[in-house]
Write a structure and sequence with these properties.
This protein has nine helices and 14 strands. It is of the alpha/beta class and 360 residues long. The structure holds pyridoxal-5'-phosphate. The site of pyridoxal-5'-phosphate has 12 residues, from helix 3.
């Protein structure tokens, strides 16, 4: 791997090296066709095969049953904040949201344009340093659905156990999809922007239970209706071909690595290395409460903003990139998604110890 540094960026984020080199080759000449993947018709046999294989691999890796549709959409995860209530909240209906960070807040703001929104729980007063447990909130019986964010990318918190409810369960899994095993059957809809843990920016995966496709009010525009895309296998209009293709390569890589279960184990090991370093130091302080800690994003602080700036500067000089924390909480953040190598976490921890010795 020539010239590669350790990329701790929260998203777009690091991708497997073999995926990047394959994509680089295929951009110029795909399957020895003499044309590049991004020059081909989305209706060509070659591209349709790419799209079908990508969906099949996702279904296999996530054990998605046949009564769910898998959609590859544009507009980023943020477009789903509006599309979900547009499609699933009828006029005058209500929904329940759990507010655990910036991304749930943005989703709540959009949903309020379409219906009555009950925020049943918020950890905002605690700077979103934890997620709720079952029993910490009540879901309004009138609600159509319960919405939550499974991993809070900015604050480094993650639901260990998903909320249980007899309502349609909806989750934004943008920053932890494919990082751990879970049963999708209690869910009505799960979505994720690809650029954190699944591929490049440009495609958002939506997994929706088939019966929910029929609920969309008549005045919702064609492109914003899930059924439009479900009926045409995400090819109602030109899909984000390149992004879908790279997601496909990432899924192949994931299968080769042993699938989601093997990835989950590796993610636990990687996060433990960093959390142990934080816990065994009086110099570094984690943001998230222990029982809400994310395996994907690990925000932490140093004793002063000056030391944080110095830390990031020296880390960058040593080839650790993307460690600056989100502006909303400052400090540092290490994002260690599936494709981030364990050896990079070990090297960061060694750097942290050295920095503490010199500055503590
Ligand atoms: C990054 C992120 C988003 C926003 O994604 P876009 O594709 O930029 O709209 C939404 N939710 C979560 C959990 C994220 O991490």
């Amino acid at each position: 791997m020539p010239d590669r540094i350790y990329n701790f960026s929260a998203g777009p984020a690091t991708l497997p090296y073999e995926v990047l080199t394959q994509a680089a080759k295929d951009i110029v000449n795909f399957n020895d066709k003499g044309i590049g993947l991004i020059e081909m018709s989305h209706r060509s046999k070659d591209f349709v095969a790419v799209a079908e294989q990508t969906e099949a691999d996702l279904r296999e890796l996530m054990k998605i049953p046949a009564n769910y549709k898998v959609l590859f959409l544009q507009g980023g995860a943020s477009t789903q904040f509006a599309m979900i209530p547009m499609n699933l909240l009828g006029n005058g209906k209500s929904a329940t949201y759990l507010n655990t960070g910036t991304w749930s807040k943005n989703a709540i703001k959009e949903a309020k344009l379409f219906g009555e929104i009950e925020v049943a729980y918020s950890s905002e007063d605690a700077k979103f340093n934890h997620v709720p447990k079952d029993g910490d909130y009540k879901v309004d019986p009138k609600s159509e659905y319960l919405y939550f964010v499974s991993n809070n990318t900015i604050y480094g918190t993650q639901f260990k156990n998903f909320p249980k409810s007899d309502k349609i369960l909806i989750a934004d899994m943008s920053s932890d999809i494919l990082s751990r095993e879970f049963d999708i059957t209690p869910f009505g809809l799960v979505f994720a922007g690809a650029q954190k843990n699944m591929g490049p920016a440009g495609v958002t995966v939506v997994i929706i239970r088939e019966d929910l496709l029929e609920r969309t009010p008549a005045n919702v525009p064609t492109m914003f209706r899930y059924k439009t895309h479900a009926d045409k296998d995400s090819m109602f209009n030109t899909p984000p071909c390149f992004s879908i293709y790279v997601v496909g390569l990432v899924l192949k890589w994931l299968k080769k690595m042993g699938g989601v279960a093997a990835m989950e184990k590796l993610n636990q090991e990687k996060a433990a290395i960093l959390y142990n370093a934080i816990d065994n130091s009086n110099f570094y302080r984690g943001h998230a409460q222990t029982d809400s800690r994310s395996l994907m994003n690990i925000p932490f602080n140093l004793p002063t903003p000056e030391l944080e700036a110095k830390f990031i500067k020296e880390a960058t000089a040593q080839g650790f990139d993307g460690l600056k924390g989100h502006r909303s909480i400052g400090g540092c953040r290490a994002s260690i998604y599936n494709a981030f190598p364990k050896e990079g976490v070990e090297k960061l921890v060694a750097f942290m110890a050295e920095f503490e010795k010199n500055n503590g």
